[in-house]
Amino acid sequence: MGTAAILSILGPRIYERAKKLGVLTPTQLIYTGNDSRIARYLVSVSYLIFMIPYMSVQVIGPAVILSRFGIPKDVAIILTLATVFLYIFFGGLTGVVYTDILRGAFFLGVAVAFALYLAPGLPSSPACLHTLPGGMGFWTLERFISLTLPWIFFALTNPQVLQRIYMARNIDDLSRGSIMFLVAGYILTISMVIAGLGASGMARLDTKDPNAVTPMIMTTLLPESLVVALAFAVWAAALSTLDSILLTLASIIDIDILGRGDVRVGRFSVLGIIVVLGIFSFYTVAPVVALAVASSAALL
Question: Angle at CA 295, nearest 5°, toward 293 and 297?
Fold first, then answer.
């Protein structure tokens, strides 16, 4: 709701300013018109640094899930990054636009099926998970605010989302896109809450690794067909997110940092970011949720 409010209030203003200035990158929204060199390079470098942890979520998540099928995590990371590079190199933004809606629809459909299959476990879910301010002493008010507040400003702080605002054909399309974003977000969030609580009523999953919870649910509670569909959905969604972020960051390196505007420079930029991302993903051990929130908080 917070994100939708921000989009409805600031979205049209951002759209009009971007069209007036003729900008391509999110950073240009800030420095074009006032020629601030400090803002130009500070914002650009901040994007490059703080988006790495967020992108690693899109690499580590699928890798952890694929590892449950016997694919080594290292191989899964390389496979994901190689696929993304080829997709961007040959498809560019056009490829992302045409396939995002297909991937999104498939991902949401599988998420709902995931929730419906685990929903029968809700009545048996431990009572401690249904208390406020939070089951098992985890959800304090402070933790809730720290994990949700950065997402309210997600559309402004994450460059690939900010860029989407002024890519719309017109204000009406922007409004429709914002509403669809809100609906999809609610469906996904509610589905995951139902799935998590339902799974807790079906089995006790003993693990101290938050990243292992979903793979354990998949391999212990779900039929094989749904497991395969869910693994593919997570991988497809991660590729979609990585495509968008890498294209935006490449344009920032090319236009804002180097001042070139050359497609070849953008492609080499993508390759460089992927190498850094791969190294980070190989060695990080942080929970994916913490990485995502920390990234958005830093950008905010």
Answer: 65
Q: Number of structural domains, the chain?
A: 1
Helix axes 2-21, 141-152, angle to 10 degrees: 30
In CATH, what number is assigned to the domain containing residue 102? 1.20.1730.10
pLDDT digits (tens, 9 = 90+) for 46-75: 999 999 988 998 888 888 888 777 888 888
Residue 278 CA to residue 256 CA, distance in Å, equals 24
> What single string gives the DSSP state of each residue in 68-83?
TTT--HHHHHHHHHHH
- For residue 16 the two structure tokens come to 């009009």
Coil, strand or helix: which one is 235? helix
> How far lies 211's CA from each of 93, 112, 117, 197, 245, in Å?
30, 21, 21, 17, 22
Domain span at residue 34?
2-299
Q: Which two tokens stand for residue 91?
A: 């498809």
Residue 23 sits at φ, ψ, to 5 deg, of -85, 155
Note whether 24 and 255 are within 8 A (CB): yes
User: The whole model's pTM is what?
Assistant: 0.84
What CA–CA distance (Å, rounded) separates 90 from 131? 50
Token pair recorded at residue 106: 């498939």
